Amino acid sequence: MVRRLRLGVNVDHVATIRNARGGRHPDPVRAAHMAAAAGADGITAHLREDRRHISDRDMERLASEIALPLNFEMAATDEMVGIALRHRPHAACIVPERREERTTEGGLDVAGNLATLTPMVGRLADAGIRVSMFIEADPRQLDAARAVGAPVVELHTGAYCEAEGEARLRELARIAAAAAHAEAIGLECHAGHGLAFDTVKPVAAIPTIVELNIGHFLVGEAIFIGLEASIRRMRQLMDEVRA
Ligand code: PXP
Q1: Residue-range domains of the chain with CATH
Q2: Which of 3, 16, 111, 239 is the least buried, fewest Cβ under 10 Å from its Cβ?
Q3: Mean pLDDT of the chain
Q4: What pTM was estimated for this model as a whole?
């Protein structure tokens, strides 16, 4: 049976553009409503420690105003756990975060942080939040995600998107192997980071991946073709592979 592939639209960079000037425009919540109309299955937002794009107020509004499931990307800190417990999003994706990075570089070291992550996943899960770990396509990290009690992993596709030629194929094979391993050990498998029209199809073709989270490219492409059109096109490319 071919499983439907969900599309989570990350609205962080609508807030990046707004914050370049301050004020209220463009509004990431409006973008979330538009994403829903264009065929998104969920909305993703990352409240960073430095609040460089999504703000606390955005998070509050996304949690209360949008009908689609909200996936809250968060660092493994007590502050973020408190915010997640207050808003109770559908899902929380735990990501590594460093202040000096431009975007989330590399996956979370779950294997090296079992003692901190296990109780954190437990608190979030007890609140009914579906927790995922944003990790590299590495079987050791997948096993660790299972060990901390996370039901979901999201595989980092950044290296695949940046690589070219043979190297890209090698990265793709690593992602496919990790996605198969996820299924074998009972984890739901998502993927994301850096995906664009020209890189999405091979990842969408991996049958055990059930969700892609995509943001920066969609918002960038919206400058040229509009947000709805960019999301609809991405949705179409994903559906073509699963048809
Ligand atoms: N998934 C996770 C866990 C992320 O941290 C990000 C970036 O915030 C994405 C997906 C989306 O990446 P991009 O904006 O490059 O599409």
Answers
A1: 6-242 (3.20.20.70)
A2: 3
A3: 96
A4: 0.97
